[in-house]
Design brief:
By secondary structure, the protein is α+β, with helices and mostly antiparallel strands. The chain has one domain: Lipoprotein localisation LolA/LolB/LppX (outer membrane lipoprotein receptor (LolB), chain A, Clam). The protein is built from three helices and nine strands; from the N terminus they run αββββββααβββ. The N terminus is likely disordered.
Length: 167
């Protein structure tokens, strides 16, 4: 009887180990200074007040510059939801087994979210520079605490972007 219980416990332990191994994510390796300007990690949320209203939130890692970079979005368990990469003249969105090509990062973001987001200014805002953008209001007052909020008031639809950086 003890051997049967021991085998059952070992089987259960092996099953749990396999389950946890399946959930494990490989360590994120920093790439060589291909994008030397900056790296930000945290969570972001975007709400677009359209008909119907849309909202999206995810963990993220942003690296690079407005003209060349990568943005990876993660689910709460750390799995990759989407990977965006861009360089002058092209941008790519990979989500699961789907790959979409765009002419620019601005076209990619507008196509993916349904609303334009000022990516170049987002890099400035994350770096602490309150670069003005027509129709947008950026609040950097809590950036020292890792929080950023930017709202688009014009043109419609209104949008609210919130970023919480990892410390």
């Amino acid at each position: 009887m003890t051997a049967v219980l021991r085998r059952g416990a070992l089987g259960l332990l092996a099953g749990v180990a396999l389950f946890l191994a399946g959930c494990a994510q490989p360590a994120r390796v920093a790439q060589k200074d291909e994008f030397s300007a900056g790296v930000w990690r945290g969570r972001m949320a975007l709400q677009v007040q359209d008909q119907p209203s849309q909202s999206f939130s995810a963990g993220f890692e942003l690296r690079g510059r407005p003209d060349a970079g990568q943005l990876t979005l993660y689910n709460p368990l750390g799995g990759t939801l989407a990977a965006l990469s861009w360089a002058p003249g092209s941008a790519t969105l990979r989500s699961g087994d789907q790959l979409r090509q765009f002419d620019s990062i601005d076209a990619l973001v507008a196509g993916a979210t349904g609303t334009p987001i000022p990516i170049a200014s987002l890099f400035d805002w994350l770096s602490g520079s309150n670069t003005p953008v027509d129709g947008w209001e950026a609040d950097l007052s809590q950036l020292a605490d890792g929080r950023l909020r930017a709202r688009r008031v014009t043109p419609p639809p209104a949008a609210d972007l919130r970023v919480a950086l990892d410390k």
